[in-house]
Structures are given as structure tokens and as C-alpha cells.
Automatic annotation (TrEMBL):
Domain EAL: 1-248
InterPro entries: Cyclic-di-GMP_PDE-like, EAL_dom, EAL_sf
Pfam families given in the database record: EAL
Organism: Sphingomonas pokkalii
One MF term in the entry's GO annotations: cyclic-guanylate-specific phosphodiesterase activity
Protein name: EAL domain-containing protein
Amino acid sequence: MVLDQEDLQPASRRGLHIAFRPIYDIAVGRVFAYEAMLRSTDGEDGDDIFEQLPRAHHAELDRRVAIASVHLAMTAGLDENNARLLIPIHAAKAAAPGASLAAAAEAGRRAGLPAERLIFAVHGYGEIPGQHLADLVEGHRRAGSLTAFVGLGHDPVGFSPCVRYRPEMVRLDRELVTGIDNSWSRRLMLEELTPKLRDHGMRVIADGVESDSALRRLRSWGIFHVQGDLVAPPVAGMLPPSRITRPTANA
């Protein structure tokens, strides 16, 4: 057996599980990565779950999620394609900067998934002390893994850490993306924000994509990595195929 049973079930008594959903690259027409998501049976996501959990358990749950994500993704067939695996870090402040990397890398070594195919998605990056955040990004980079800052939205404060610490990827807050067809202010913000991120060498992931028209708008702004109901919803223990199956033309 690859992993201990306790690591395969991050917190089974709470009904928690790992689900996966694709990040689709609309420029080349393939799944770029699968995101591992901590979920509860009540539909709560990782951020909500960590808010309800005593802080003393945060680092351990992050570690277990990292290990379980690798094991379950490989069991579900990640080794059969070239997609990366995006692993969430919800409690970066509660652990040493390389804790999730070490756990995932060891699980990957056992399962045959190299660190070069891992992306670590840092939630709440704006609340992490600067040196800790710098060490986190640099540690991932030295190992060959990528870092994504999660949740860049309307608040301009979230932009500064992105520019300063230079993760390879930034995921937009889904509230910024959802409804862009009907919101002039959201469209304007994305038109201004996207080139700034690209100029600093960061790729952008757009979550909350729900329509073909939104997809075309995002592509016209140079946003090629997308998630949302249009792509595929999260599925527990499986790697769901993308509902989009070809490159998307510009609007």
C-alpha cells in the first residue's frame, strides 16, 4: 500500500473527502492541471472547513490533504496524461514553508509523480508574513514545482504580494469572473489587471467561467487557463474530463 490509511482520509469522522476538477487551457485545447479540493459532505470547501477547525490542527490537515491528493490523483489516472496536479495550501502560516511540498513530494516519489508536475495553490496569501511567503515560493521553485496565489479580486491590496513574490500563477477570485458578461466594472478591471500580471511573468487562472461568451472574453484578454461549471464541476475521487474539448477562438 502506498500510503497509510489515515492519510487517505484526511478527517473521515468529519465526512471530508478530496474532489478534483480540471483547469483547462483554451489556447492549446487540453487539460492543463487537475485541482485537488478538500470538501465536506455538506458541500463546504476547504476555506470554510479550515475556519471551523482548531488552529492546532491546521498544519496536519494540510499535510494529509497534500498526501491524499497525490495518491488519489494517481489512482484515478493522472499518470496516464501530462496534466499537472494543483494541491491546496490552506494553512501556510501554521507550518514551515516547505511542509506541504515535502509531504506531496514524498507521496509523489512513492507513486511516480515528479515534483515538476505539482502546483501549490496558496490560499490567504495576503495574510502570510513576507519572508514566510518568499521562502514558500522559492522552495517550490527550487523543487521544480509551481506556485499559484489564490483569490485575487477587487481589493487592490492583493496585487502587491503577487508582484513582490512572483508566483508562476495567480487565480482570480471567482466573484470577479462570474457575471462578466453583465458587468462593465468587472470587465474593465480584468482588462486592466491581466496585462499587469503577464508583464510580471505570471499566468492567470480564471475561476467561475459559466458561458461561452465569457470564455471568449477571457481569451481576448490573454487569460487561457479556466475553471468553472462550463469546464467541469468537482467530482470526488475522479479526474473528470473537460466539457470543452478544443481550443477557443478569440471574440
